[in-house]
Amino acid sequence: MKQTLIIANWKMNGSILANSKLLIAMLKFHNKLQHVELVICPPFPYLHQVKEYMVGSNIKLGAQNVNENNSGAFTGEVSADMLKEFSCRYVLIGHSERRALFQESNDIIAKKITQAMDAGLTPVLCIGESLEQREKGDAQAVILEQLSCVINDIGLKKFKSVVIAYEPIWAIGTGQTASPEQAQKVHRMIRQYIYGLDPILSKSISILYGGSVNEINAAELIKQKDIDGFLFGGASLKSDSLETICKLKI
Ligand SMILES: O=C(CO)COP(=O)(O)O
């Protein structure tokens, strides 16, 4: 059975003290997480701190971004090999905040995925439509374009190791989550698209939902057939919310 994947994206939040409190609280419930794979994605400067706390636990480390180049004159950037050296297992790629604020194109995102995979990291490809695109009836086309650009670039064989995270932009940080039915409809569409390319992969690939997930709405969302876990931000900074979500009966 596929393990439920729960990824905490701390975004640009935290401090050494605040992280310590959160991590100590997490370590109290980590051993009850047999049925989930919990991944923490802190800002780069805190990777080492989180890594130290996670020793001996089954909580995994992830990063929020990676550069599309190997090494060289890219001031301020971080390579996939560096993340690997810091014990990262996962890396978020193509988050909507990076697409919008840092002009990341599908082309750059495909390059980042290749870098991540070459370093042995699992890329978490974030996709999703804006409110305007949804209202115009373009959501499906936007999502399939985001997926197909990457698949065409890296090839289906490599794509087998990618995790997909569907995060409708209008639901991120707004408190307005997609209803379980809305989310399921898109997840099903994504899985059917993958089925058309590779029926076996459509069963094994993990498709996460993200966008204002909290301890209240998570229970209904996770019951949806095609939702395999969560990528969440705000609620991942609160240990009680995180614990409730991780302990949901799936
Ligand atoms: O962007 C997100 C996770 O990557 C979602 O953020 P929120 O859970 O704060 O809406």
From TrEMBL:
Pfam families: TIM (PF00121). It catalyses: D-glyceraldehyde 3-phosphate = dihydroxyacetone phosphate. GO terms for molecular function: triose-phosphate isomerase activity. One of its GO terms (biological process) is glycolytic process. Pathway: Carbohydrate degradation; glycolysis; D-glyceraldehyde 3-phosphate from glycerone phosphate: step 1/1; Carbohydrate metabolism; erythritol degradation; Carbohydrate biosynthesis; gluconeogenesis. It comes from the Bacteria. Substrate binds at residues 9-11, 173, 212, 233-234. Its EC number is 5.3.1.1. Keywords: Cytoplasm, Gluconeogenesis, Glycolysis, Isomerase. CDD domains: TIM (cd00311). Gene3D superfamilies: Aldolase class I. The active site is at 95 (electrophile), 167 (proton acceptor). It is found in: Cytoplasm. GO terms for cellular component: cytosol. Its main location: cytoplasm. Involved in the gluconeogenesis. Catalyzes stereospecifically the conversion of dihydroxyacetone phosphate (DHAP) to D-glyceraldehyde-3-phosphate (G3P). NCBIfam families: tim (TIGR00419). Homodimer. Belongs to the triosephosphate isomerase family. This is Triosephosphate isomerase. It comes from Colwellia demingiae. The gene is tpiA.
